[in-house]
Amino acid sequence: MEEKEMKKLLSILLILSLVFALAACGGAAEQGEQGDQGDPGETALDWPKKTITIICPYSAGGGSDLMSRAVGERLSEILGVSVIVEDMPGGSGGVGMANLAIAKPDGYTLILTAMGATSLTPLMSDVGYGYEEFAPICQVSETPTVITVNASSGITTWEELLAMAKADPKAVTYGSSGTGGAHHVAVASLLLEVENNADLFTHIAYEGGAAAVTALLGNHITATASIPSEPYPYIESGDFNCLLTLATERFSALPDVPCTADLGLKTIGGTWYGFAAPAGTDEAILDFLEETILDIMAEPEMVETFENLACPVVLLGREDFTNKWIDNYNSIGSTLKAIGMM
Predict the structure, then answer these.
(1) Full pLDDT tens readout for the chain, 342 residues
(2) Which CATH number fits domain 146-263: 3.30.1050.10, 3.30.1490.20, 3.30.360.10, 3.40.190.10?
(3) Contact status, residue 65 vs residue 273, Cβ threshold 8 Å
(4) CATH homologous superfamily for the domain 52-142+271-338
(5) How far apart are CA 156 and CA 163, in angstroms?
């Protein structure tokens, strides 16, 4: 082969090798970009970087407080930042909710709230919020209202408590976590059904169910209306008698206690518990919290923790929980009007 033809061939080969090299580099770069986007270890969230606060709108030691701390501890382990619980009791949950409503919507302030604080309280009082100020994340539990007395009273049935009140209208006092709260409304509704008198028992409001239980221990009140978790240890020890659950079926943790349906009564009552953030919180953060908290609640250890609190795990995701929250808010007014609270 002549020298001129040899040089021409070498030039062609050099050009082809450069083309192949550039194509390979471009493919590698594209592959690298796709790998970065699909890496499950990466997250688009620049969050969290600091302590997260979970507001508990009821008093320390109650069911909300204990649930908040259980979930908060696990959330801290997963996120790698501190998660603290701040109890803000008062106003039937309104104080804590109002504080969340004005919190910065940056994912660092959450709440474990309940049906009464989200729906009943803002309808009965001017607390400065409705449902528009909040971004629901997920529901974690749902429990019935239970009516409990001190065993030293000698009262062992709902009928005996009712007879005491009918004999002396001032004889029966009962405590709950606040005026207009879910348990107050449930008992008032029950009394309206059975005696056409929502005020047959005298209601005394406390800053949380735990405070009402303490009052019952000291015999300062006749009964409590609360979620099962708050009087549960004393029911188990025999210090309290649980008379009734306001539900369509018996509560699994208290199978020997009759429910209102057993007595032929229609009234049911209770509350749900769920997490929320201030309205305007980044959708990506809300989605991440929804998925993470629901995963936490599905862990066997967490299910057992909630069962030991007599707060069974009942889960709803963001969409269903949001719809439930709004439906409660819009429908509860008729109940409040019927029992003279609105």
Answers:
(1) 444 444 444 444 443 343 344 344 444 434 433 333 333 333 457 999 999 999 999 989 888 999 999 999 999 999 999 999 999 999 889 999 999 999 999 999 999 999 999 999 999 889 999 999 999 999 999 999 999 999 999 999 999 999 999 999 889 999 998 888 899 999 999 999 999 999 999 999 998 889 999 999 999 999 999 999 999 999 999 999 999 999 999 999 999 999 999 999 999 999 999 999 999 999 999 999 999 999 999 999 999 999 998 899 999 999 999 999 999 998 888 889 888 887
(2) 3.40.190.10
(3) no
(4) Bordetella uptake gene, domain 1 (3.40.190.150)
(5) 12
Token pair listed for 152? 């030293």
CA distance 197 to 316: 35
Evaluate whether 52-142+271-338 and 146-263 have a shared fold: yes
- pTM passes above 0.85: no
Tokens 């929320």 correspond to 276
Other Cβ atoms within 10 Å of 185 Cβ, number: 26
